[in-house]
Amino acid sequence: MPAITFHEEDISYKLKNKTAVRKWITDTIVAEGYKLSELTYIFCTDEYLLQINKQYLDHDTYTDIITFDNSEEDGVIVGDIFISIERIRENAGKFNVTEAHELHRVLIHGALHLLGYKDKSPADKKKMTLKEDFYLDKRGF
To answer: Which residues of the sequence carry a binding annotation for Zn(2+) (predicted)?
Structure first.
C-alpha cells in the first residue's frame, strides 16, 4: 500500500490538511509517470537538519530540506525528506508568503527531487521552480 507519512524530530509540529496534502503529493508523483511506494517527511529543527547535513552530505550549512532517495527500482518512489520548520518560518517571512505556502513549496520540492529534478545549475533551478509553481497551482486546498 503506497504511503506518505509525516514525523517529527526535536520539534512539535502538526501538519494541517494531511489527507489533502497526501493526495496532492501522490497526484504529483503519478502525473510525472512514477509510482509511489513509500515517502516519509520528517519535520525537524535547524540544528537537527544541520547535523544530518554534516553527517551525510559533508556540508556545514543550514538548509530547509534534505532529500534521501531510497528507491531501488526505476519509476518507483521510496524516500525520506527532512524539513526544517524553523527555515520554513524564516523563509516565509523573507519571501512574504504564508508559512503553509512555503511548507507546501518545500514539500513538493522534495518530491520533485525524487522524480529526478535537480536545482544545482541556474537552468535546473528555473525548471524546478516552474514545476513547483505548476504543482502548487494544483493543490485545491
So the answer is: 109, 113, 119
Residue 1 pLDDT exceeds 80: no
Binding site annotation covers 113?
yes
Burial class (CB in 10 A: 0-12, 13-18, 19+), 119: middle
Is 119 annotated in a binding site? The answer is yes
**C-alpha cell, 15:** 501538519
Instruction: List the Cα angle 53/84/18 in 5-degree steps.
Output: 130
Distance between CA atoms of 4 and 8, rounded to whole angstroms? 14
Q: Is 137 annotated as a binding residue?
A: no
Yes or no: say if 89 and 99 are a contact pair by the CB < 8 Å rule. yes
Backbone angles phi, psi at 130, to 5 degrees: -60, -40
Bridge partners (DSSP) of residue 40 are: 5, 80
